[in-house]
Amino acid sequence: MKPLSKIVKKIHLYLGLSCGILVSISGLTGAMYVWQPELAAALNPKLLQVESIGMVSEETLLKTAFALYEKHQDSVVKLFLPYREQQTISVVYTNGRTLYYHPENGMVLGQKSASISFFENLLNIHRTLGVPKVGKYIVGGSAVLFSLFLLTSGLFLWWKKYRSNFGKGVKIKWKRNKKKLNYDIHKTLGILFLVPLTFMAFSGGYFTYNTYYKKGFTVMDGFAANSKLDTLLQENDHFSVKTLLNNPDENYALRAIYFPENSTGTYQFRYIKERKVVPGLRKTKELKLGNNGVISSTTSFESDLLSAQIVAQMYPIHTGEITGLLGRILVFISGFVPVILFITGFRYYYFRTYKKNNGKKERKN
């Protein structure tokens, strides 16, 4: 029977050579997407930015949104109000076009630009590799394997070798042969970025396997009391789109409306606590409204169970926004680490194998 360390080394090697390349792609695309709000706003000031946005009230925003809804309701698929980098109102139509409107007067500002589409495609590659249907499972699976097995096996091997000399375990000797230099870089970056990479990979898996994450986190519900206070909008209450758009929520800002695809579909109203990118917990609210005006479901952060409150933080954890600018910078830097680990790990394996094979040939000769 092989010693445990040899088994762990094999697991680390094979997972590194297989899912390592997938995680590298996710890391690089994710690092680029961290600054999407700032870059998109800078590249599209006429479409996304409004100088007087701070003076525009919630009532005005909803009034403009309702006017656009009344004018185009039969052809509207989605309607987005100001959030993050977008200070304007955008409408997605059934023909696939997206137009942007001024939040005060409803004037058309233009249609979706190439740079906005670029970031949407970048996010699609990050989450699915651009492969329909199965891509998200490939990315999500590699993220889970990376966090549960690849990083933990690397930690096990590092701890076994350097537990009595931490300094040596994080030191890189630059004047070494290729094999040892790659090993030094690999083990040092691996241990230094272990925590952020674990959080990023684990939270990244949520976007594919959210159902399982939610079920798993339900074990936390017994550790915290939840009053389940009812919100102003209750299930089975009757409301109309007009009513909701003409009556701002006292605690949340309306972010988006998703319109029903058919007569049996539902309107989805999504709310957020803050329209800007801010550090801290992500607090949201959602309600679904049938064509008959009956609210079929409503949730909010305050009334959600602890498990739902936790999974709501997967996005800000994944992007680093939960801790503000420093968190985003850390996620940005960490996004480049998987590809460095992949390259150095592969080169270390190559040089070790190459030397071993050359040694065998020399002995034969």
Automatic annotation (TrEMBL):
Is Cell division among the key words of this record? no
| InterPro entries from the UniProt entry | PepSY-ass_TM
Q: Which PANTHER family match?
A: IRON-REGULATED INNER MEMBRANE PROTEIN-RELATED (PTHR34219)
The record's section on Pfam families has: PepSY_TM
TM stretches of this protein: 12-35, 137-159, 188-209, 329-350
* Keyword line: Membrane, Transmembrane, Transmembrane helix
Q: What is this protein's record name? A: PepSY domain-containing protein
Q: From which organism does this entry originate?
A: Gelidibacter salicanalis
Q: Does the keyword Plastid apply?
A: no
